[in-house]
Amino acid sequence: MNIHEYQAKELLAKFGVPVPAGHAAMSVDEAVEAAKKLPGPLWVVKAQIHAGGRGKGRFKELSESAKGGVRLAHSIDEVHEHAAEMLGKTLVTVQTGPQGKQVQRLYITDGVDIAKEFYLALLVDRETGRIAVVASTEGGMNIEDVAHETPEKIRTITIDPATGLMPHHGRAVAAALGLSGDLAKQASKVLAKLYDAFLGTDASQIEINPLAITDRGELLVLDAKVGFDSNAEFRHPDLGELRDLTEEDPMEIEASKYDLSYVKLDGNIGCMVNGAGLAMATMDIIKLNGAEPANFLDVGGGASKEKVTAAFKIILSDPAVQGILVNIFGGIMRCDIIAEGIVAAAREVDLNDPLVVRLEGTNVQQGKDILAQSGLQIIPADDLGDAAKKIVAAVKQAVPA
């Protein structure tokens, strides 16, 4: 689960992380009132969407020369002007895709005179089983660009969970950022507070870009992106209240109701698989055969007939889907349960698109018999390679180029 910048800053502030004063606003009037609560004479008006690159983004409804989704205001009237231009408009950034996202919330913050910007992030390093701290002197830039063009400017420090954060970690981060004296001490303190927040919220990512030195010699978090481990949501019901469903894909929201792992993609072949690794392999082999997957969907290891039916219906609710590949390895999950769910869903939605099913594992023959006796036009496959070739061919035949 991701949250908005203003929510991230409010959360980090509870752990003692230094952030500028700011207030969220859902309307132009609220934006003006928020600005009046701040000292000025400089304010920052920020569009709140779950995507990066807001400052360099553009609004579909405005001219190409219009300013982006992060703007400076030198008066209350300018705050009003910027808020009126942003709210209700569609902001397109490098991360939203061409469709963009509608701005429904703003964040009005104190303006800060910046002397230097840095990048700092805490992430889960799954290879080492540790928290990785990524630091760079190139703040304010896309870290992907920095990694590609000047990788030597990125330093990664890992923290062993057995020892936790140690003083030498703070010194290493300060050195990576080129800080000394009081600023080095501040960097260590900021890292300690971020580490506490990371553990305290079961975060999967805390990205600070930029972490800035102000003209007063203070380190401040000027932008924050926070994501949480969905597997730990049960421990943080308060964080669930921060979820903004308007920022999420409707199909992904529906999938979460059934505890399905679903991510919409840009292709035309829907995938239903059990197991994340098998799902990735299925998508890869679809691409290998010259087509594109329409989604990632993992039904899990012990899905019920109802869960499988829901998964099938979610795939079919995507208008881009022109064919479906079901790839199931029945270990904990039984192939006959999968087959019953497929048949039930196909009949309920009156399936017309090509459907290829590859089953292997527990009760595989019973599953194949259920599909064969269903009376539906289901194409069986012997293995994953065979399944991918058949669904790609079937879609091409059904939808002539």
Q: How is this structure best described in words?
A:
The chain has 401 residues and is α+β, with helices and mostly antiparallel strands. It folds into 3 domains: 21-110, Dna Ligase, domain 1 (2-Layer Sandwich), CATH 3.30.1490; 114-238, D-amino Acid Aminotransferase, Chain A, domain 1 (2-Layer Sandwich), CATH 3.30.470.20; 249-398, 3-Layer(aba) Sandwich (Rossmann fold), CATH 3.40.50.261. Helices cover 36% and strands 25% of the residues. The chain contains 13 helices and 19 strands. Strands 8, 9, 10, 11, 12 and 13 form a 6-stranded antiparallel β-sheet that branches. The chain has a 4-stranded antiparallel β-sheet with strand order 1-7-2-4, with helices on one face. Strands 15-17-18-19 form a 4-stranded parallel β-sheet, with helices on both faces. The mean pLDDT is 89. Belongs to the succinate/malate CoA ligase beta subunit family. Heterotetramer of two alpha and two beta subunits. This is Succinate--CoA ligase [ADP-forming] subunit beta.
What count of structural domains? 3
At CATH level 3, the topology of the largest domain is Rossmann fold
The class by helix and strand makeup works out as alpha+beta
**Biggest pleated-sheet summary:** 6 strands, antiparallel
CATH architecture of the largest domain: 3-Layer(aba) Sandwich
State the CATH class of the largest domain.
Alpha Beta
Overall spatial form:
globular
* Helical content (DSSP H or I, runs of 4+): 25-40%
Binding site for ATP: 46, 53-55, 112, 117
InterPro entries: ATP-grasp (IPR011761), ATP-grasp_succ-CoA_synth-type (IPR013650), ATP_grasp_subdomain_1 (IPR013815), Succ-CoA_synthase_bsu_CS (IPR017866), SUCC_ACL_C (IPR005811), Succ_CoA_ligase-like_bsu (IPR005809), Succinyl-CoA_synth-like (IPR016102)
Family: Belongs to the succinate/malate CoA ligase beta subunit family.
Domain ATP-grasp: 9-55
